Amino acid sequence: MTTISTGSKRLWRTSPLTYIALILAVLSSIYPLYYMFVIATRRNDAINDTPPPFTPSSLFGDNINRALDNDTANLLQGIVNSVIVASVVTASVVLTGSLAGFAFAKLKFRGRNGLMLAVVATMMVPTQLGIIPLWGLMQDIGWYDSLLAVTVPFLASAFGVFMMRQYASSAVSDELIEAARIDGCSTWRIYWNVVLPALRPAAAVLGLLTFMQTWNEFVWPFAILSSDNPTLQVSLSTLSYAYYTDYSMVFAATAVGTVPLIVVFILFGRQIIGGIMEGAVKA
Amino acid sequence: MSVSTRRRRYAAVALATVAALATTTACGDDNEGGSSDGAKPEKLVVDTFGEAGYEDLVKQYEQQTGIKIELRKVAQLNEFRPRVVRSLATGKGAADVIMLEEGILNEFKLNPGNWVDLAPLVGDLSKDYLSWKYELGKAPDGRLMGLPTDVGGLGLCYRTDLFKDAGLPTGRDEVSALWPTWEKFIETGQKYKQATGKGFVDSVTTAVNAVLFQQNGGDLFYDKDDNLIADKSPAVKAAWDQAVAIADAGISAKITTWSPEWNAGFKQGTFAVNACPSWMLGIVESNSGPENAGKWDLAAVPGGAGNWGGSWLGVPTQSKHQAEAAKLAAFLTNTAGQVAAFKKSGPLPTNLKALEDPSFQSFTNKYFSDAPTGKIFGEGVQKIVPTHLGPKHQAVKENALEPALRAYESGQANAAKAWEQFTKDAATQGAF
Amino acid sequence: MSLSATTAPPSRGAPTKHTQPRRRRGYSRFTKLDMKYSPYLYVAPFFVLFGIFGLYPMLWTLWMSLHDWDLVGTHTFIGLENYSALLSDDYFWNAVRNTFGMFVLATVPQLALALFLANLLNRPMLRARTFFRMAIFVPNVVSVAAVAIVFGMLFQRDFGVVNWFLGIFGVDAIDWRREWWSSWIAISTMVDWRWTGYNTLILLAGMQAIPRDLYEAAAMDGAGPWRQFWTVTLPMLRPTFVFVVILSTIGGLQLFVEPLIFNNGNIMGGTQREFQTVQMYMFENSIHNLSRAGYGAAVAWALFLMIVVVSVLNFVITRRSVK
């Protein structure tokens, strides 16, 4: 017994090299973000300084005000729109994902396996495959430049269904469902009272991942929204195209657009990371 | 506002039937809501690219009329064009007043129905502008698609401080005398390069544009009947050969126009000369920043006068305030408007009274070492002979000609290969 | 593609599902209806939305690809002409080559690095574990557009940080956008920066599910850490690895925003299309040149087929080789 445990201790010993490698990895993860922040706090010329500046200065307020004052980019509107779109999409993806995941994992119905296979298969479809007709469809139904165009198509996701199914199949016991059934619960009540609470951890992860992804979505909003009614990412691209020289302003705006996510991530990071790992193991 | 909410509600209803909707996704002219209702609009949107110099004018108009004006700017024409095309295709999202550059105007003439005939709305202004310029603003069906803004009289911007360091003269007349021809220009560039080791001109592509538009009256990528002749046009070949000679001389900084390097180059002095049609002055100024004020100056372009660029202001039929938009367009292009825009950012007037205006003629540009830009550009303007540009001129120039030259300049392709690349791409890009 | 492909790693020791015989009871009529039909109701939202906004446009794209289709004009049926044109279109094959090239250049080092980092993070005695995990994951939080803008500046020719850094070691300034290899490296770097952390965590999760006693047994046989990595970790990690590879494939073959913003929004990707991807070529032939939308649609379908083929291949190869 003792020999094994000392043996394994030696085996799992962490050498300084490990830390060095990890610290290098962390530095390269952080540096581009840090660089963005440093430029955002300096005069625009700093972007061309060699060697590059490594410490922040004090002009962040000026830079961000310039971005906010920009009529064309509508940055504030972009932030508000992004909050709306990301929240609605997140709530809906979690709801539809957990409902469908529950059905696929715990309910028996004809065609279940075939349909689940179809869900997984759709994950392979490149999102841009239908972008041209979708773009046409949107103008036909009058959603061009409307937030509906960047919200409605994303209210359910294959990944959400898939992830919730994987989680539900092990996190919710069949006995529990059966017992609820015998008590006379309808399927909906079972979902609401029994399944959903059990799915909470996975739902939180799915929610955060969905929020991040929606917040960062670029190609489709860029194609369908104008700078009049932009999401944050569309605002940012307007800034960087229209005022092409002013990088401190662009970076300040980009930092403002990224900070909320980083804060959320730091607050809930453990859970996200735990959840991703959970999902992967079950995947 | 109310229209868009109504539309949204309508859209929600429409969703239910979407699945059954096997309608075409083609986007015919969407004229609904295009009628001008005469009511005073709250806001008008103006779409421009580059630096049009409208910032102060727009504020002035706001004060006069109480209508809020939103000025949208896009840096590059290449970025601007697809947006306009898209908004026309979808029937949504276009501004009320849109700036149409000569390279893209003809493409829009293919579907004149997208544009409001301005003549009935602003009255007969044909006597107010250079007559050829005014005529070019008309679509084949006779409607007046745009009111003239500017022409792009050619000059060369140069950095006096860098010239001085290289032992070259700095006065604009002496500098102009250095390069009566492009050959002399190359010689000067080589002297500069020897002295400093740095690139002289930003890229061959600005040079090729200058040469291209010196072919006064000649056909460029299209003939007069809009047949694509990019591969056999003598004018194009002449410009090409000149650009190749500049590249061979090694005096280019090899910087792609509009890239981050280009933007930085103005501040950092990566190059000392840049082709400057009048509208480029505002771009040079905004790129170089206040810290470089007084370091740039303006000289004549080698090889004689030419016209690169210049625009019109049009009103799309999807605008909900056509009459008011037309008034705004007329305001921005009237005598006072054009003089003010010129002073602000350099676009050269096409309005005859503006060209005669003493405050235009005597204007000196402080940023450009007090160069008498009004006099320099104003003298050339009357000599401009219009050049016929075909429907996809801009696409051929930016997506076929310039990339091929850049490939040659950077040594990725030899002359024959680069020419082959150009002609092949021109055929695709130029089809319409 | 079978379901088990992406659902590959079954959670170890989880109870086998549905072994219980279904109990028959006298449920009410409502309950029977409820049990029979409500599952369809629950899965319906996804399928309805996918049908309208996924499948319908997809099929419409297929239909368009059989036409000479002008988004602002007319369209005429031309059968498979777009596809045959595609086969002999140099620019299309160039885009295919670029896409695969950058995919390999980005994915291989990325997965190797992710595997390496995951292995480091898997050491149980590691201090500040959560910090390391989170810090490595952070880039994934940043939007692609922001990444591309920032890296576009880092990779500037004249005043970029990367060239400055290389300059310290005496390397001449590289014009990153000019050559295919340099642009591929720059773009792959962006992709790797954003996704290595994400993949690290997924692989780490897979590693943590490997029972400890397997390692202890290997250690008893005298295997050192690296031997254990090869003989225990890698084989046991196979299902997770397949999952990661397939996800990277689907993402990698759709590369778009990075090369686009890298070249200042130019859809052609370099003067000789050095880094134009298939996705960019599709956009060039649709949204940018509206009169070629039919051809763009054919490009879109070709891309879809490529993804399917490569995913299946990936699945087969990874499954066989990592044993």
TrEMBL record, chain A:
<protein>
    <submittedName>
        <fullName>Sugar ABC transporter permease</fullName>
    </submittedName>
</protein>
<keyword id="KW-0813">Transport</keyword>
<feature type="transmembrane region" description="Helical">
    <location>
        <begin position="115"/>
        <end position="135"/>
    </location>
</feature>
<keyword id="KW-1133">Transmembrane helix</keyword>
<dbReference type="InterPro" id="IPR035906">
    <property type="entry name" value="MetI-like_sf"/>
</dbReference>
<keyword id="KW-1003">Cell membrane</keyword>
<feature type="transmembrane region" description="Helical">
    <location>
        <begin position="79"/>
        <end position="103"/>
    </location>
</feature>
<dbReference type="Pfam" id="PF00528">
    <property type="entry name" value="BPD_transp_1"/>
</dbReference>
<feature type="transmembrane region" description="Helical">
    <location>
        <begin position="141"/>
        <end position="162"/>
    </location>
</feature>
<feature type="transmembrane region" description="Helical">
    <location>
        <begin position="17"/>
        <end position="37"/>
    </location>
</feature>
<dbReference type="GO" id="GO:0055085">
    <property type="term" value="P:transmembrane transport"/>
</dbReference>
<feature type="transmembrane region" description="Helical">
    <location>
        <begin position="247"/>
        <end position="268"/>
    </location>
</feature>
<feature type="transmembrane region" description="Helical">
    <location>
        <begin position="190"/>
        <end position="212"/>
    </location>
</feature>
<comment type="similarity">
    <text>Belongs to the binding-protein-dependent transport system permease family.</text>
</comment>
<keyword id="KW-0812">Transmembrane</keyword>
UniProtKB/TrEMBL annotation, chain B:
<protein>
    <submittedName>
        <fullName>Sugar ABC transporter substrate-binding protein</fullName>
    </submittedName>
</protein>
<dbReference type="InterPro" id="IPR006059">
    <property type="entry name" value="SBP"/>
</dbReference>
<dbReference type="InterPro" id="IPR050490">
    <property type="entry name" value="Bact_solute-bd_prot1"/>
</dbReference>
<keyword id="KW-0732">Signal</keyword>
<dbReference type="Pfam" id="PF13416">
    <property type="entry name" value="SBP_bac_8"/>
</dbReference>
<feature type="signal peptide">
    <location>
        <begin position="1"/>
        <end position="28"/>
    </location>
</feature>
From TrEMBL, chain C:
<keyword id="KW-1003">Cell membrane</keyword>
<dbReference type="GO" id="GO:0005886">
    <property type="term" value="C:plasma membrane"/>
</dbReference>
<feature type="transmembrane region" description="Helical">
    <location>
        <begin position="40"/>
        <end position="63"/>
    </location>
</feature>
<keyword id="KW-0472">Membrane</keyword>
<feature type="domain" description="ABC transmembrane type-1">
    <location>
        <begin position="96"/>
        <end position="316"/>
    </location>
</feature>
<feature type="transmembrane region" description="Helical">
    <location>
        <begin position="100"/>
        <end position="122"/>
    </location>
</feature>
<dbReference type="InterPro" id="IPR000515">
    <property type="entry name" value="MetI-like"/>
</dbReference>
<comment type="similarity">
    <text>Belongs to the binding-protein-dependent transport system permease family.</text>
</comment>
<keyword id="KW-0812">Transmembrane</keyword>
<feature type="transmembrane region" description="Helical">
    <location>
        <begin position="134"/>
        <end position="155"/>
    </location>
</feature>
<dbReference type="GO" id="GO:0055085">
    <property type="term" value="P:transmembrane transport"/>
</dbReference>
<feature type="transmembrane region" description="Helical">
    <location>
        <begin position="236"/>
        <end position="257"/>
    </location>
</feature>
<dbReference type="InterPro" id="IPR035906">
    <property type="entry name" value="MetI-like_sf"/>
</dbReference>
<dbReference type="InterPro" id="IPR051393">
    <property type="entry name" value="ABC_transporter_permease"/>
</dbReference>
<protein>
    <submittedName>
        <fullName>ABC transporter permease</fullName>
    </submittedName>
</protein>
